[in-house]
Amino acid sequence: MHKLTIAELFEESNSDTLSYRGKIVKSIVRIPVVDNSVITLERISVASPRPQAVKLGLNNGVIDINGYRGPEIALWSHDSPDIVEMRVRGIDASVLEVWNAWSMGGVDTSWIGNAGIVTKSSAEGEILQCSDGFDHASFSDLVVRVSVN
User: Fold this and answer.
1) CATH number of 6-148
2) CA-CA distance, 146 to 31, in Å (whole number)?
3) In this predicted model, what pLDDT tens digit does every residue of 14-26 receive, in sequence order?
4) Strand, helix or coil for residue 9
5) Domain locations in the chain?
6) Which of 8, 26, 59, 142 is deepest in the core (most CB within 10 A)?
7) 3-state DSSP call for residue 13?
């Protein structure tokens, strides 16, 4: 009997949130924002041999980070600072979408296999425990904290 991967369970449920082995797992995390919100992303740990990334996208407007402005950015574990501050620019911006990715033989990959995110709220923001798509779901491949002020 084939055990379904988390990606297959997401597809089957037609949802971006599901219960998996007693945990609530999301394929994408949505955080409310407004124009001029400051987003701070802190990489807490990486426990994977593969490069890991956290990706951030806005429903409207752009993310302003060190002079780069775009609707979507990727912060990779091997070449970005542990703490990154960015600003939301756009009067219609209302939702920041966050998901994990990883490099598979140099290919930027998301949302396959056992990829998913378990979130925990803390006083300092949302802690995202990410599982990349390889092997069993571990939710420790990449751990980041996202806060919005």
Assistant:
1) 2.60.120
2) 9
3) 999 999 999 999 9
4) helix
5) 6-148
6) 142
7) helix
